[in-house]
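Protein Entry — a single chain follows
Fields — amino acid sequence, structure tokens
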Amino acid sequence: MITARQKEFLQQLIETYGSTPLPPIRTLASDLDQHRTTVYRWLQVLEELGYLKAQGNRYYIDPDLLGIPLLENRIPAGVPVTVEEDVLSNRLSLDEYLVKDRTGTFLLKVKGDSMIEAGIYEGDIVVVNRNNRAQDGDVVVARIDGEMTLKTLRRRQQQTWLEPANSRYSPIHPVSGLEVLGIVTGLVRRY
């Protein structure tokens, strides 16, 4: 069981060093204004508890701790509830949550309003998986007649086209070619 002081020390390490390897103990002691023996002892305890990993004489923060706290409670959009938080017990890395295949994923910032009825707005960032096996109804990044766009893929019988999610725009039927570059698998929005 981690003590309050150890938890505070670990939180300092996470905030100061993040995912980088921790510096030597002498540097840690200086940076955190602690005695070297104390720092060494805390590092050993945190390793035993599973919060740190050691490789040779270097320590690393367990990558599972570097996400954002994920609370167990679901948040109702109606009546307020009490939320209890233990920030070290359950964390969510947005990379791990949104990205299934790191090498096959890219992000794009949305420009324009052609997808607003699908809840995709200008300034949003879409998470795209490089995949050309899109199905009818998938939101895709595609190259149509040489230009890239974000639309819903439509297939009926022998026809394939792109459909905006805004009633002010018309569907786009390819003249010289349609290539799906990826399927949208997630979205990030800042308020």
